Amino acid sequence: MREYNLCVIVIAALIVTQVDRTLATLQCYSCNSTISESGSCLMSPSTENTISCETQCYTQFNAGNLTRGCLESEASCTLPSCSSCTADKCNTNVVCQECLGLEECATTNVTTTGYNALCPENGQVCVNQLNENKTVTRQCGVACAAGTESTCSSCTESLCNVGLYPKNRRQCYTCSGAECNAVTSTSVAGCSQVDAGCFTTGTSTSNMTRGCTSATTGTKCAADSSDPSCLVCNSDFCNSLAYQRDAGSCIICENCAPQQVATEAKSCGEAQYNQTVGCYTMTSGTNVIRGCLNALEAGCSTTNSCTSCSENACNVAASEFKCIECISNEVSGCWSASDPATLPAVSCPNGTCFSGVWNELGVRGCFTSASHLMQYQCTAKVEPHQCITCTESLCNKVAFNGAGPLGQVGVVGLLMGLVIALRSAL
Ligand SMILES: *[C@@H]1O[C@H](CO)[C@@H](O)[C@H](O)[C@H]1NC(C)=O
Ligand SMILES: *[C@@H]1O[C@H](CO)[C@@H](O)[C@H](O)[C@H]1NC(C)=O
Ligand SMILES: *[C@@H]1O[C@H](CO)[C@@H](O)[C@H](O)[C@H]1NC(C)=O
Ligand SMILES: *[C@@H]1O[C@H](CO)[C@@H](O)[C@H](O)[C@H]1NC(C)=O
Ligand SMILES: *[C@@H]1O[C@H](CO)[C@@H](O)[C@H](O)[C@H]1NC(C)=O
Ligand SMILES: *[C@@H]1O[C@H](CO)[C@@H](O)[C@H](O)[C@H]1NC(C)=O
Ligand SMILES: *[C@@H]1O[C@H](CO)[C@@H](O)[C@H](O)[C@H]1NC(C)=O
């Protein structure tokens, strides 16, 4: 009997120790944080205290509150708001931004609480993935594989997958209507295409539209738009010009090749968002014209012998010194020079032009390119050559006396022969 009793006591003791050990061995983190406080229970649970639990640990995320602790046996814990686990210190689940391939997952910073999601398993990390259709998927998952850095980014702390992804995604002012003339930082948005352009278009201060060329809804300008009302630029926040802006001041004059006085610059008025602001100097034949870029419809480029600059009153420099260069048998109008703007011109850095008659041909050019004999005959005013020199740009436009018997165009080749003959004569 005694032996039997002892036996019962031993068995009972064994059961009790067994139960005790089960109760005492599972350690769970026990803490709470609100999302708004970003407390350590959310951000670094492994630094929190643990408690002994009976069977399971849990992590619960509900209306912005995160709680970790022991799951009571009768309590229910189901996804998506609650996750349970049975290993020591297993309730370390993070909270990530979850946004699955919608346009807004790429075009906004995705920071609002509506995107917060509890990761179903501990050990999961936050992942941002660039999809083939250029959208972004943000979610809980496994860390990105090596070699996928250009399309995948992962991080281990709660809510770490916020912000634009990729970080170098194009950002443009995005707005329309009355509030869209003077831009503010609140209207910045990422573009659905990583390398989109930014556009500006509109008809008045109260009807501007700005955005990414990759936008899929509403008024927009394509990246390669030829619509003159569309201004497209290719850097972050570049589409900021107001409908109208002060166009600065420039020298405005015609026939004004020499150096100009900067204080005589005049106002250029207002420029529209799609007009360039700055000053130009344009050579048209023998005429030099200066003015405001916003008043130059054709634009300013080498094809119209135009140079530009961007500061106020910057178009003051004397224009390049040039001479008319022609021989009367080759270039129509060279003999009379009655329409000098139509005659070819060359640069002449030395600043002296000449015109004269040799072998009954009218010759005009830069003095330093004439042969030594011609230079001598010109300087000595040897009579039949009617040669004169002058020192203003494009000044060698005096008509020659007489009809110029060989003065017709078309004796091709004679020019070169003549020049060679004249040059080798001395
Ligand atoms: C949250 O944790 C604090 C101590 O850090 C505790 O006083 C409070 O009761 C906890 N609240 C919940 C809902 O667990
Ligand atoms: C979340 O926590 C705050 C303060 O800790 C509390 O006022 C609120 O009722 C909690 N909400 C839920 C759904 O538990
Ligand atoms: C883009 O691709 C992702 C992933 O394949 C998909 O979830 C999403 O619906 C797609 N979005 C669009 C706008 O096609
Ligand atoms: C969005 O994120 C970008 C960088 O990722 C940052 O420059 C910008 O200020 C953020 N915008 C807002 C409204 O948080
Ligand atoms: C506003 O601008 C758009 C183009 O950007 C144009 O189609 C529309 O007619 C304009 N509305 C008014 C009232 O001018
Ligand atoms: C600017 O846009 C207007 C239409 O809004 C257009 O008529 C004009 O030609 C454009 N100017 C330039 C320089 O493209
Ligand atoms: C002017 O001409 C002389 C001789 O032809 C030459 O040595 C000199 O470099 C020229 N000066 C300029 C500014 O071109």
How is this structure best described in words?
Keywords: Signal. Residues 171-239 form the DUF753 domain. With 426 residues, this protein is α+β, with helices and mostly antiparallel strands. It folds into five domains: 26-93, CD59, CATH 2.10.60.10; 96-155, no CATH class; 171-242; 247-309; 322-423, no CATH class. 12% of the residues lie in helices and 30% in strands. It contains five helices and 32 strands. The protein has helices at 2-25, 40-43, 103-107, 372-379, 414-424, and strands at 26-29, 31-34, 50-53, 56-62, 65-71, 82-85, 95-97, 99-100, 116-118, 125-130, 136-141, 152-155, 171-173, 175-177, 188-190, 198-202, 208-212, 231-233, 244-246, 249-250, 253-254, 266-267, 270-272, 279-284, 287-292, 306-309, 322-324, 326-327, 345-347, 353-358, 361-366, 388-390. The strands form eleven sheets. A four-stranded antiparallel sheet has the order 2-5-4-6. A four-stranded antiparallel sheet has the order 8-11-10-12. A four-stranded antiparallel sheet has the order 14-17-16-18, with no helix packed on it. The longest helix is centred in the N-terminal third of the chain and has 24 residues, at 2-25. The radius of gyration is 42 Å and the shape is rod-shaped. Mean pLDDT is 87; it is low at 6-23, 406-418 and 420-426. The site of one 2-acetamido-2-deoxy-beta-D-glucopyranose (NAG) has 4 residues, from loops.
